[in-house]
Amino acid sequence: MTKTTLDRHVLLTSEQKVEAADLRAMGFTRSQAWRRVLTPEQRQVFYEQIRAAERLRYRENPYREIIKRARNLRNSACRRGAKYNAWEFTITEHDLDWPTHCPVLPWIELHYPGHYRHDPAGASLDRIDHEKGYVPGNVRVISLRANLLRKDITYEELRALADFFFTRSDPTALPYHTRSFSDHVVDAK
Hints:
Elements: H1 14-25, H2 30-37, H3 40-60, H4 62-80, E1 123-127, E2 139-143, H5 144-150, H6 155-169, H7 181-188
Antiparallel strand pairs: 1-2
């Protein structure tokens, strides 16, 4: 297998093809029929080919694949509930800025795509206004870590979290929200 082409060879024997055709006639989809007739070794080769094709697509244009994955996630959410049907999804890879570092947590260099599943430095699409869909002007690229932190935290929860960790690091200090602005400036120095 080379970097630019995939080794595509026929996995099914003629008997397996006949059996798969029979399953298709009974109402199974092509992939369901294939899964039933493939041997474990053939199934492993088949899934390796799928993963290799996905890696190749990501190498060729990672931005398009990130948009495509987000669109697929949105579509599966639409199938689960009517709430998501109102979301538009009209962005393309050209509608977004693709920064090298996360704008929220600037010490994180973004990976396009993430190096592994749920990579905190992996690029993630963030909707600015959650009432709107994935439309130009309402989506930005940030790290998955920043997006998960932002997901559902309220201002009060964020303030309580900051207070907790501030007082834990300096037990003699006042809670963060009771201090004056000049105290914050002194701490920054």
